[in-house]
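Reply to dn_fold:

You asked what the input looked like. This is it:
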Amino acid sequence: MKVSLFITCLGDMFYPEVGKDMVELLERHGCEVDFPENQTCCGQPAYNSGYHKDAKKAARHMIKTFEQSEAVITPSGSCAAMLKEYPSLLAEEADWKERAQKLAEKTYELTQFLYRELHIVDTGASLKGNATYHTSCHMSRLLGETEAPYRLLSSVKGLTLKELPNKDDCCGFGGTFAVKMTSISEQMVDEKAEHIEETKADILIGADSGCLMNIGGRLSRQKKSVKVMHIAQVLNSREI
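and this is what came back:
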């Protein structure tokens, strides 16, 4: 199957290694991966801030960019959910709504694609350590994916996965929320860091780079020794 990688803004600027691990994972499981170079931001920051005119401009561009793709795979449940929001965003533009719907139907977050479309449970990964998994809000509540990450992580050789207390609580990032509501965001991420410490895990895993950047930054400022990893890095790991 030929698939297109949608790397996302954070992936492009801060986590390029996640994209590399994604490509290796997908190719190892029989996919041919391409990278449409015209891809940009999905428009979520503008959309969440109420700038729908700008979000529509980004949406139309992304629709054109991935129109010929068989499937679009992204390392972010949040950005995948935004692409699936395009039909609603462009609801009053009949032609664009139809094209948006086609993109929405072929867009997947990485673990969702591996588990539900390729029917993979074990990627052959190995990583020794005690880990906990942060459930990101957009991936679970908007994209509706709550099973795939856990099923795939449960097969990682050498990895002990510990339940994160109050795992459904937001980490306080929320895109522009962390900028607009700094004091509230800080209290939320502090609470998340406390719960991570309760698990005594030495690895924090997540499927959204924004959450990992926010939580990882807080853990770093608190001088915690928890290693922060995107799930793509874990599922592609061969440490044992």
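The two ends are 30 Å apart (CA to CA).
Hope that clears it up.
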